[in-house]
Amino acid sequence: MQLAFYFDQTRCIGCYTCVVACKDWYDIPAGPVSWRRVLTIERGKYPKLFVAFLSLSCFHCAQPACVAVCPVGAISKRKEDGIVVVRGDACLGKTSCGLCFEACPYGAPQFAAEEDAPMQKCNFCLERWAEGKKPVCVAGCPTRALDAGPIEEMEERYGKVREAAGFTYDEKVRPAVVFRPKPQVPVAAF
Question: How far is 29 from 163, CA to CA, in rounded Å?
């Protein structure tokens, strides 16, 4: 089984509740580390503008580039659910290594400001899954723009769209994510 995220770009309002919920749940201090991030995509010129938001985290890829490049085996992919996990105690840190950060096409590996801080990233809320609950980012989203579950269920429920504004699907790593992209229709002039 492979767990996956679903993101509905048409519903996201860029409120950052998913980011705050994750930081709060895991007691991640203010600073450079955010296991979930929200990007703003802006295109066009007035009066034909396009604005969308993109919620990003680790996408627990089918062939994670971070696992392949880790020289000490600190990153692994769980067979039972496809979640990519990190053993911080084995990680060499950003200053001494940082290969996972360079390899990931989605910027999922995160490092605290301290020298040689170990890599950390979204773990799909393993403890919540064990209790039969969705990840905290999904539970916290006020517009229900996020969902998570087995990839087959996400595809059956939402389709098989793999790209959205600001996101390009990488065939090599195959991120476990399904989208409902925001249509890029120009806004009519008044």
Answer: 31
Average the pLDDT over 54-58 and give the result: 97
DSSP SS3 for 55:
strand
Whole-angstrom distance, CA of residue 139 vs CA of residue 144: 8
**φ, ψ dihedrals at 188, nearest 5°:** -65, 145
Tally of helices (H runs) and strands (E runs) in the chain: 6, 7
Domains of the chain: 3-180 (3.30.70.20)
Q: How far apart are CA 138 and CA 17, in angstroms?
A: 10
Q: How many CB atoms lie within 10 A of CB 117?
A: 17
Cis peptide bond N-terminal to 47, omega within 30: yes
pTM of the entire predicted model? 0.91
Q: Which residues pair with 38 in a beta bridge?
A: 55
Task: Note the pLDDT of residue 189.
Answer: 45
